[in-house]
Design a protein that fits this description.
Layout lengths: L9 E5 L7 H14 L5 E7 L16 H4 L3 H28 L6 E6 L3 H11 L4 E3 L7 H6 L3 H6 L6 E4 L13 E5 L6 H15 L5 E8 L1 H7 E2 L2 E2 L2 H16 L7 E7 L2 H12 L3 E5 L5 H7 L2 H8 L4 E5 L3
Parallel strand pairs: 1-2, 1-4, 2-3, 4-5, 6-7, 6-11, 7-10, 11-12
Antiparallel strand pairs: 5-12, 8-9
Helix pairs in contact: 10-12
Length: 317
């Protein structure tokens, strides 16, 4: 099923306070400059997780949901919002409005467990795109302390997830280069469709698109000829992907086909760095943190090892 029609239309941006919101807002401004009127709605979401109650909860064994209905705690919530939360969200909204976004920009503030609320909002309100703050925690810290972004990545989310990288001063808009990782899976077509919408909108600013595929050692030896990887298998996979992108208006002379052998994460990281791409598109699998610890994940490794790149995770529908 072609998903182009709903791609990059409705945006959910969960935000925390402080400087951590700067990167997702800067990236949203970049998308606005690229997509224009395609954008239908932007929602800035903040989930408080009961933090405004912490100083009043000593020795009180009661569920947050039952006490926030009282007048006293409603006032605590309101005061906390006005002092700590709303100014940041209003500043972010104003910054987006000044970038030329004509679609409605709403602010939503919720109470509860952040990961649960974000995933629920994203799925129930049919957002096409989530822009998440990149975690600054180490892998070990995320496993034992946790982070909202890490939690969302392990949940089933229908929309496409964007994790903005460290953008240069002022950003690069529209994006000039992209790598699309293809794994010979049924979900590859959805990844191509989602990527093609953004890439086509970049127009002449787009300089190159790298279609990358990694073979395991056994398959690599089967496809190796005169020291290079070739064969109908590769031509069929990457050739058809290139044809699809060309049909979406992306010039074929800008499309590079790259095939590597070995550990997928290592090969892709090397290709990303060598090609100096700005955005990486790949499919995502829903895994628990425990499975992640023992099994590893290509997408997770790329997120940690390529902090300067924007990583886009696409779920097959």
């Amino acid at each position: 099923m072609n998903t182009n029609d709903r791609t990059l239309r409705r945006f959910l941006i969960p935000l925390d306070t402080g400087e951590s919101y700067v990167r997702p807002i800067a990236f949203m401004k970049c998308l606005a400059a690229t997509l224009g009127r395609r954008i239908e709605k932007v929602t800035l979401l903040h989930v408080m997780a009961g933090r405004y109650l912490s100083q009043h909860m000593t020795n009180i064994d009661v569920r947050v949901g039952s006490i926030i209905s009282t007048d006293k705690f409603r006032k605590l919530r309101s005061d906390y919002l006005d002092r700590e939360i709303r100014p940041t969200l209003e500043a972010a909204k104003k910054e987006l409005e000044s970038s030329g976004i004509q679609a409605p920009i709403e602010i939503v503030i919720d109470d509860g467990e952040p990961v649960e609320r974000i995933v629920k909002k994203a799925n129930e309100d049919d957002y096409s795109t989530l822009i998440l703050q990149r975690s600054n925690a180490s892998r070990v810290e995320e496993m034992f302390v946790g982070s909202v972004t890490s939690g969302v990545l392990h949940r089933e989310v229908k929309g496409t997830i964007y994790l903005p990288g460290n953008m240069p001063q002022g950003g690069v808009c529209p994006p000039k280069s992209c790598l699309i990782a293809l794994g010979a899976f049924p979900g590859d077509q959805v990844v191509l469709e989602r990527a093609s919408v953004l890439l086509a909108a970049c127009g002449d600013n787009l300089e190159k698109v790298v279609l990358a595929h990694v073979l395991d050692v056994v398959k690599c030896s089967e496809e190796m000829t005169d020291g290079t990887v070739s064969g109908s298998y590769i031509d069929d996979l990457l050739g058809k992907a290139a044809d699809f992108l060309a049909a979406q208006g992306i010039a074929k002379d800008k499309i590079i086909q790259a095939v590597g052998c070995g550990n997928p994460a290592d090969v892709l990281v090397d290709e990303i760095n060598m090609q100096e791409v700005g955005i990486v598109f790949m499919g995502r699998r829903d895994r628990t943190a425990l499975k992640e610890l023992f099994m590893g994940s290509i997408s997770r490794k790329i997120i940690y090892r390529c902090p300067k790149r924007t990583v886009v995770l696409v779920s097959a529908e």
